[in-house]
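User: structure tokens for this one?
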Amino acid sequence: MSPLEKTLEAFATQATTTHGFLQLAVIAAGLGFGWLAARVMRRRVTQAALWKFGTGGFDRVAFPLAALALIWGTRFPMQKAFKTPFVDLAVSLLVAFAVIRLAVYVLRHVVPDGAFLRGSERTIAIAMWVGVALHLVGILPEVWEALDSIAFTVGKQRISLLLVLQGLVSAAIALAISMWLAKLIEGQILAAEHVELSTRVVIAKLVRALAFFLAILVALPIVGIDVTALSVFGGALGVGLAFGLQKIASNYVSGYIILLDRSVRIGDLVTVDNRHGVVKEIASRYTVIRSLDGTESILPNETLITQSVTNHSYTDRKVLLKLKVTVGYGSDVDRVFALMLQSARNQPRILADPAPGAWIVALGDNGIEIEMGAWISDPDQGQVALRGAVLKEILEAFRAEGIEIPFPQREVRILGPSAQGKDPAITAG
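Assistant:
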């Protein structure tokens, strides 16, 4: 008899007996205990808890697991006294429910939110409930046999449809769990603020690569594939890298070199390949540079290794901001210096130490050329707006003090035959 037939027969014989009511009471108590455990978990577990890995919270998984633990634990002593078909059915359903919740819980942390994630959740739920339905009606073993009968032989290896499905499921489970744990470890590494950011990024990427490699090593033997076959794949991969994939390999290696030697770090202000901006991300294959106008450039890592890079914040993030003005020859230079320096000090982004300075750079055709230098510690925030604010305040201060900003002047002499030795001149300004 199938489990469903046994349950229906037991329902007819035990529905109104003490044994039937006892099983229903155990099921109800297990469900109530699971609901209460989930409520307690929701209140006590915060978003920043160490073991809160995925979206939705562990309390969603706690309900079926807690209920299953109580019902399953109670079934053993009950089975010694009488048959427990109701409890057996509840255990089967709770196991499927717990597996679905746990799979979705892990999947939401590994796969980005989107159509693929939603489709994967539906596929897992449908597959699990179909499996439970086939088990209850008693035809699941026949389905396994039918899938195993569809097979072909490659060398000495018999490959059936059942083996392929088992391999795909095993690989998916191993990869999901390894990526889940890798992301947990990666989050803890990136949160270690006492370690330099580039070092944290390198370690996190190595952890992810190692987790992927271990998942493959675990998944292949489960389905009966010899891991020594990877040596053949490794040789083929080496040939591919030597020819068509050498640029990709170069970018990956360059990425690790950049992160390890820390010549370019996340947050640095750089100029490379006619692009000026802040390094926002150093990925395995590329580096993202965000310019001060908001546009983002994706550069291959090899570019930062083979070309000259100007790192404006390599040893010191402070950058000198220079402004130049011209005043008339009749102006009080010391007063001009004072007004310009005060205008700089009024800006919160300009540092007090080192202090701003001003000096004469040239005695020009139209006036005295004066340059002011001031230091800022946040060059990634841009300089255009700051320059404009300082110049506006200088202009207003000069107007209030009556300091002249001269216009360009030129003297033009027109000479002709009628001059008769005279030197008339027309001056235009």
